[in-house]
């Protein structure tokens, strides 16, 4: 039996990064897929529960979610770490350029 659920996530916004903390208890690194296509972040994970030889106790839980990142995230520098059932993603923001001053030459 398969169950598909959206994982619980905490989102923290700092001056330079967004931090996403996903609650994925019992998920191994080999059963986790994190990727970005275009500017869409996707997180997919699989958790196997019970004994596969006993169908009445065995189940598979699938986590899946997608987030639109927009143009403000540097997708090439995203970092991911899985620690004791918590997936932490660091999404660095692209530094905003302020107005530029143009030097005027006087003839």
TrEMBL record:
Residues of the CS domain: 4-105
Top-rank taxon: Bacteria
GO biological process, one term: response to heat
UniProt entry keywords in alphabetical sequence: Stress response
Domain SHSP: 1-107
Gene3D superfamilies for the chain: 2.60.40.790
Family: Belongs to the small heat shock protein (HSP20) family.
Cited PANTHER family: 26.5 KDA HEAT SHOCK PROTEIN, MITOCHONDRIAL, HEAT SHOCK PROTEIN 21, CHLOROPLASTIC
Protein name: Heat shock protein, Hsp20 family
